[in-house]
Design goal:
This protein is mainly beta and 234 residues long. The protein has one domain: Porin (Beta Barrel). Helix content is 9%, strand content 58%. It contains one helix and 15 strands. The longest helix has 22 residues. One of its GO terms (cellular component) is outer membrane. One of its GO terms (biological process) is transmembrane transport. It comes from Mesonia hippocampi.
């Protein structure tokens, strides 16, 4: 009897130890990786609105397709921070502007060249796991948009103010292996800038010497970013 009791106690102790190891957080594969990196292809679709003084009309900014890189750090199994890096080039113009003040048509489209945008974005995320491989998430964050390499089109010069903005995202990861996964991501960024167009070169002949034509505008871009890519945990 004593031997039997010792045997049963040994089995129970071994079983309890095995159960604790299998259910310990340190044994969960996903918690062994604190970092994720994703490379996506992203469609950037601006939702343009503007208040253009002097000539009126609306702003026209084209869509684009770009590569995007992000890094995610997990504070816990569910909470993380993601830094998103990507840059895009857009052609810019106005639609239906009134150029009669400079002897032009009263309903014209104006080419304002192009500009590059760099909006590094930091999102704070909540991740969840459904089943073995499906991992949806949501995020909310801030960005700072830098405008660079401006081309002025028909105007003499054009400038854009760098601005802070905010955005939200949702998406999901689908595991391929323990380390590698597929990602689908949707983001909405709220970006706006103050634009000043120096159109002095378009003044009609005979304008008083020293005359200048500056056209200010408040522009909202508010792009959607729809991405698909691959990720790796490390």
């Amino acid at each position: 009897m004593k031997t039997l009791l010792l045997t049963i106690a040994g089995v129970l102790l071994l079983s309890g130890t095995t159960f604790a190891q299998e259910n310990s957080p340190s044994s969960e594969k996903e918690t062994s990786y604190k970092w994720q990196m994703r490379l996506r292809g992203v469609g950037v679709v601006p939702h343009n609105r503007a208040n253009i003084s002097t000539i009126g009309g609306q702003i026209d900014v084209n869509a684009n397709f770009i590569p995007e890189l992000d890094f995610t750090y997990f504070f816990t199994k569910n909470f993380a921070a993601e830094l998103i890096l990507g840059t895009s080039k857009h052609s810019v113009g106005t639609l239906g502007s009134d150029l009669s003040a400079i002897n032009g048509p009263n309903n014209a489209d104006v080419d304002l060249g192009s500009v590059w945008l760099l909006p590094p974005t930091l999102n704070f995320q909540y991740h969840h796991k459904i089943g073995e491989v499906f991992k949806p998430y949501v995020g909310l964050g801030v960005n700072y948009t830098i405008f660079y390499n401006e081309k002025s089109g028909v105007a003499q010069d054009i400038s854009y103010d760098n601005k802070f903005g905010w955005g939200y995202q949702f998406g999901f990861d689908i595991d391929i292996t323990e380390k590698f996964f597929i990602n689908v991501d949707f983001k909405k960024l709220f970006l706006e800038t103050d634009v000043t167009v120096n159109a002095t070169n378009l003044l009609p002949e005979g304008s008083p010497e020293g005359s200048k034509l500056a056209i200010p505008a408040k522009v909202k871009l508010d792009p959607m970013l729809i991405g698909f890519g691959l990720g790796m945990r490390f």
